[in-house]
Design brief:
It is a single chain. It is built from 16 helices and 25 strands. It has 632 residues and is α+β, with helices and mostly antiparallel strands. It folds into four domains: 35 residues; 139 residues, no CATH class; 245 residues, 3-Layer(aba) Sandwich (Rossmann fold); 186 residues. Helix 2 packs antiparallel against helix 3. 44% of the residues are buried.
């Protein structure tokens, strides 16, 4: 009986294997005979919508990494302006079908240039199947084969190059930096106020981001405005930004960045203050403010989370992929009380306050040749605060605003070229697994990685010292039976930005750690690429760039450490004073040193995120070129 069962089992296994081979052979025959010669005109990727907000957020963010990689490699990508039914095949599923794609779908056509088309295929494969240089290959981007030549209206996307404004009065920097990281906007530099005039050029950047912030009171460390008119931006800086936008650059501003872009501000007394004589790109700005949007605003002293914006114009590209109602927040942003003919509403406040419900929360403007997007709100905060459905909304809003402010004029998609499926399969076979044994590591970035570790240690140690001084102040306040509110009210707290700076430190250390991991991957593939003279030269260029950034941060750290020593001495001196009047004065001094220290340390972070961004750009660019060269 057992022998019979065993025999039957063997027969079943044989039949199963035979049938499996037969099915595989038959499918191969079908593909070879019916599909491999079919023309394919390019690829389609689109927003993924699901009930699982985390998955949705991750897949859509990685999709934008794909789009931005293609754009950096000068491969054309187009954004559709209307909904379409298109004839497609999903990769690895060879049944052709008509599918509905919403506006904002990304079309990636073949270029007609063999080398560029091979690179396109290599990049698509890495995101849709498996990448040799990615740590996490579990997240696959759904990609569709485009089976027809199209004649539709599209926006041609451009390689995004972001200049992010940073000075002592800007905040929310980390929120929008994190959007750039999550969505692959790796051409990203902070520009301090003193750097704007010499560096903000269309040859360097194509979008200027002003994430928020007000004028700065050195003793309080608080944003303030004069009847809502922010006055602390220098005229030459304002005019440089105006020229940049007027000549075709984009501008994305939130909260304080929206205040600054307005051409007029209503006083609390009812009068209107104009930051410039007229809204005209040809004129100079003689007063504070950038004035690149023909809107008038007034100050709102509202800070509210858990509010909503309702899409007003769902044909506007900033709204692509969004629900009709989206989560939002306001932290003192402006109320748009007048919107001129060169501006339009994108979204309205909803379920917020009678003061602003129904008024515009997001608008766009034209200024000369440039496009402007202004948020009274902070979608970047929605993106920053978690990996849930709400954060997906924030990432989408900011990404859309960046693309909108940098893309070309609406046009018909250019002539489309095709390759057959056999060519696609051939390239993917060649580029699917090129990486050598990862144990063969060339330690070419050892000095840089050591310097990264030193930078992490130094700044972590400095923050520990700062926190120790702050805790000492609170201990003294407790001994004097002062409540925390009394401590704040009397300026005894000092270093008001400790918590905010600690958040910056935590995230920027992560950027440095990611930079080290990326350099290690470059070391793993170094032996494969070392015969390329351009690669070797660029390695040295990357080393120089990273060394420069780390040295700048180290210099600022040393200034910050000396400032902390003065600060700590002042704190202990304050603690020994008996007179309340002297304590009051010393409280101001403590705050002064604290704010100065806070400012210096935050400026030290300018150079750290780009160490990761530039390393990752370098890795991807040279790996894609290597894959392409193997298949040409």
């Amino acid at each position: 009986m057992k022998n019979k069962i065993f025999t039957i089992g063997l027969i079943c296994i044989f039949l199963l294997v035979t049938m499996s081979d037969s099915i595989a052979f038959s499918m191969k025959e079908i593909i070879n005979n019916d599909a491999l010669n079919d023309p394919v005109y390019g690829f389609i990727v689109t927003m993924v919508k699901s009930d699982n907000g985390t998955f949705e957020n991750q897949i859509n963010c990685k999709m934008r990494h794909l789009i931005n990689d293609l754009l950096r490699e000068q491969i054309p990508v187009y954004w559709t302006t209307t909904d379409h039914n298109l004839s497609v095949k999903k990769i690895n599923i060879y049944n052709e079908e008509d599918m509905f794609f919403e506006k904002g779908t990304y079309i990636i056509p073949f270029t007609g240039n063999k080398t560029q088309d091979i690179k396109l295929l290599a990049i698509i494969y890495d995101y849709n199947q498996s990448s040799e240089i990615e740590e996490n290959n579990s997240l696959k981007i759904p990609v569709y084969l485009l089976k027809e030549s199209l004649s539709i209206q599209v926006y041609p996307l451009s390689e995004v190059k972001i200049a992010s404004y940073k000075d002592r009065c800007t905040d929310a920097l980390l929120w929008y930096l994190e959007v750039a990281r999550k969505c692959g906007f790796l051409n990203f530099e902070f520009l301090e106020e003193k750097m704007v005039k010499d560096n903000l050029r269309l040859t360097n950047f194509n979008v200027f981001m002003y994430q928020g912030g007000g004028a700065y009171n050195i003793f309080r460390g608080k944003a303030y405005g004069i009847n809502g008119a922010y006055v602390d931006i220098k005229y030459n800086v304002a005019n440089t930004i105006r020229d940049f936008v007027a000549n075709g650059g984009g501008y994305v501003g939130s909260c304080g960045g929206a205040y600054r872009a307005a051409c007029g501000t209503k006083h609390e007394q009812g009068l209107v203050y104009f930051p410039r004589k007229a809204y005209n790109p040809k004129l100079r700005s003689y007063f504070a403010g950038i004035s690149i949007s023909d809107v008038i605003v007034e100050s709102l002293h509202l800070s509210m989370e858990g509010i909503e914006s309702e899409i007003f114009n769902d044909t506007h590209p900033v709204t692509f992929g969004l629900d009709q109602i989206v989560p939002d927040c306001i932290f003192g942003g402006p109320k748009f009380i007048y919107i001129g003919e060169n501006s339009q509403k994108i979204a309205l406040y909803r379920n917020t306050s009678p003061l602003i419900d129904g008024t515009a929360s997001w608008i766009s403007s034209e200024f000369g040749k440039g496009d402007v997007v202004l948020f009274s709100t902070h979608p970047g905060y929605i993106a920053f605060k978690g990996d849930d459905h709400e954060s997906h909304m924030g990432n989408t809003v900011i990404s859309n605003a960046i693309y909108y402010s940098t893309f070309g004029d609406e046009t018909e998609i250019p002539e489309m070229y095709s390759n057959n499926l056999s060519f696609i399969e051939e390239i993917w076979d060649i580029t699917s697994n090129l990486k050598n044994d990862i144990n063969q590591i060339s330690n070419i970035f050892g000095e840089i990685k050591d310097k990264i570790n030193d930078t992490i240690y130094n700044f972590t140690n400095l923050f520990s010292n700062i926190q120790e001084s702050r805790d000492f102040i609170l201990q003294i306040a407790e001994q004097k039976n002062l409540s925390l509110n009394e401590v704040k009210k009397n300026n005894f707290l000092g270093f008001i930005g400790t918590k905010d700076s600690q958040d910056h430190l935590t995230y920027f250390i992560r950027y440095l750690e990611n930079a080290s991991k990326t350099l290690e991957i470059i070391e793993q593939i170094y032996l494969q690429l070392e015969n390329n003279n351009d690669f070797i030269h660029q390695v040295e260029t990357l080393k120089t760039d990273l060394n420069g950034r780390l040295n700048e941060s180290q210099n600022i750290y040393e200034v910050g450490f000396k400032k902390w020593e003065q600060y700590n001495k002042t704190v202990h001196n304050y603690a020994n004073k008996k007179s309340q009047i002297i304590q009051k004065i010393m409280g101001h001094v403590v705050d002064y040193w604290g704010v100065e220290l806070y400012t210096i340390v935050r400026m030290g972070f300018n150079y750290l995120p780009q160490a990761y961004f530039n390393s990752l750009k370098f890795l991807r660019n040279h790996w894609y070129n290597f894959e392409t060269n193997q298949a040409v």
